[in-house]
Amino acid sequence: NNKKMKKILSLMFLVTLLASCRETGVTITNDPYEGIEWGNVLHLKSSLHVHTVNSTIEHGPEEGTTVTPAEQISRYEELGYDVLAITDHDYVTYPWSEYGKPDSPMISIKGNEFSKNDNFCAYFCDWLDLPGQGPEKTVGFEESIEQVSKAGGIIYLAHPMRSGDIKNAEFSAKVFRNYPQVYGMEVLNVGQFERNNSIELWDKLLTELLPERQVWGTSSDDAHSVRKAGYGWTIFLTSERTEAAVKDALMNGNSFFSTPKIVETVPKLEVTPTITSIAHNSDARTLTISATDYDRVEWTSMGQVVYTGETINYASVEGIDKYLRATVYGPGGATFTQPWTVVKN
Questions:
Q1: How does pLDDT run across 203-252, given as a tens digit for each residue?
Q2: DSSP assignment letter at 40
């Protein structure tokens, strides 16, 4: 009888354990790094939100921006960037050949920052909101999004935590649900880092929208002078050095993004961490991050850090639902992955 009871108890324990595994396990359904050949992939360092004196054309001298397009382009060339989008306020500073920079080695992205309502950066299009009529004359936030979409552009919300309706997670969630051409948001707008840090809002939106709707993140300088250049960047992972490849990466989240300003003071000698590879073993249900110049990797889901370490077994770690993202920290700052979409088994 004792032997039978032990067998029954053992079977009950196994059934409970298996049930527990099924309840806590998750599966990745969208991997933005799937198919990337890390040994061969290009790492294109990009600045996606930059201003020049042309920002004052529609909005007046209160912008306080005096740097010329040629000066700003030259500064990012000096810093070793591969991609630059000049996003002047309601003005398209493009092509660069009209501003004395016809032969830059950087990929030039056409764009502007819509600033008459809640701000967003539009790329790969030149439609403008009632140009020449001043900052008070506008077709409105939603109509601007519609027109950018018709013109073939793609949109990222700019510094959403600064002001306006988009700092409200419920409002921004509706924007993402209603407009597929809004692909993501500036999680790190480094020009005024404390004021424009939108990490918490990003997690709220991912929690609200996934698994139905992804929200990709970027890091940008929002530089209004050459002094402010080089403190926030997005690395696009592409197989070729072309504008089309950058656009595809912006739409599909094939990137990671960084800033040194995540630490208390901007380090002078330390190097910001960079990701060298991400390995996903779907059978073992693990993700492994390899990086340089780092001291820890934190994994976040539902707005909470759920694990610390280079390799996570996402099927067994508690607290994972809807999404999983990683942050690589080091003495020189931090680098953020894009989120993986996960669903519970």
A1: 999 999 999 999 999 999 999 999 999 999 999 999 999 999 999 999 99
A2: T
Retrieve residue 317's tokens. Answer: 């770690």
Distance of alpha carbon 127 from alpha carbon 95, whole angstroms: 14
Q: How far from the centroid of its chain's Cα atoms is residue 305's Cα?
A: 18
Provide the whole-model pTM. Answer: 0.91
Q: Which long-range contacts (CB under 8 A, 24 or more apart) does 111-115 make?
A: 111/48, 111/85, 111/86, 111/87, 111/153, 112/87, 112/88, 113/49, 113/51, 113/55, 113/87, 113/88, 113/89, 113/158, 114/90, 114/144, 114/148, 115/58, 115/59, 115/89, 115/90
Pairing, β 323-330 against β 26-30: unpaired
Cis peptide leading into 260, omega within 30 of 0? no
Distance, CA of 199 to CA of 169 (rounded, Å):
12
- In DSSP notation, 195-254 reads HHB-HHHHHHHHHHHTTT---EEEEE--BSSGGGTTS-EEEEEESS-SHHHHHHHHHHT-
DSSP 339: P
Distance CA 326, CA 304 (A): 11
CB neighbours of residue 301 within 10 Å: 26
What DSSP letter does each residue of 247-315 carry, written as one string? HHHHHHT-EEEEEGGGSSS--SSPPPPEEEEEEEETTTTEEEEEEES-SEEEEEETTEEEEESSEEETT
264: which 2 tokens? 């208390």
Q: What is the predicted pLDDT for the residue at 345?
A: 75
- Distances in whole angstroms, Cα of residue 308 to Cα of each of 119, 295, 303: 35, 11, 14
Do the beta carbons of residue 89 and residue 121 sit within 8 Å? no
For residues 49 and 237, what is the distance between their CA atoms, to the nearest angstrom? 19
Mean pLDDT, range 98-121, rounded to an integer: 97
